[in-house]
Amino acid sequence: MSEQPEVKYGRPSAAPQVGVDAGDARKPVTVPEIRGRKGGVPLTMVTAYDATFARMLDDAGIEMLLVGDSLGMVVQGNADTLGVTVDDIVYHCRAVARGSRYAHVIGDMPFLSYQVNPEEAVRNAGRILAQGRAHAVKLEGGASIAPTIRRIVEAGIPVMAHVGLTPQSVHALGGFRVQGRDHEAAARILADARAVEAAGAYALVLEGIPGELAATITEALTIPTIGIGAGVSCDGQVLVCYDLLGMTADLRPKFVKRYDEGHDRVVTAAQAFRDEVRRRQFPGPEHTFGMLKRPVPVTGTG
Ligand code: KIV
Questions:
Q1: Domain membership flag for residue 109
Q2: What CATH number did the domain enclosing 93 receive?
Q3: Which residue's CA lies nearest to atom 2 of ligand 1?
Q4: Residue 23: pLDDT above 80?
Q5: CA-proximal residue: ligand 1, atom 1 (nearest)
């Protein structure tokens, strides 16, 4: 039986790098595997922003970890995603890549990191892979951004596309609103989905659209669709990790299922810590270091 080394102080060493765990049945999740899951067992993707969460989600068997620009809202506390920078994404991607062993890590391209021109887009996407150690990038937009997707893909960088409710366009859309509810808007989103597939995207996030439209797009494409607020027919589902864990106290969007009440659990645990400290119950003897035991000095000549 192999024993875990005892950790006396500090933290366990970083997760082993991909492929180092000899004899482990799990394999790193790759782009071809994700493409191959089209129409098969649904894929799961969860956002992650740090190594500890990445490790837990990876241990849970989540196939894809998205370092989303949602970090602007849930980590940085802003009202939207617009202030996130490429440096932010690179920084958080590195942490997630260090913490995960098998999951496919995707770095979100932030606002204005790919819209200005394709050269800048390729350079920024390259940084997310080279410095952030992500395996792919995600970017928002349909037909109008398809030529840029093609250029990034031609540089050898896998691109996950994102259509429907695209949060970087929050002001143009007039808020975080469901898209594609009438026939013209639905037809435009379907055309966008076809355009990003033709440009070489290996998967497509469908956000905030009616379930029927997501089903039609999923049927029409050969690449997997990953839904968020897009019904059950997609080839996979994605949630923001804090939403999935119920960490947000006052935000309860319709499309989110809270699999735990993380907010209440964290508050309860922190209150227990506060109360034990105030009563001097923590730290106990089991959490306290003692002096080294020295051998009793031998005195005299015998
Ligand atoms: O930034 C993000 O977390 C996302 C998901 C909601 C798909 O883009």
A1: yes
A2: 3.20.20.60
A3: 68
A4: no
A5: 68
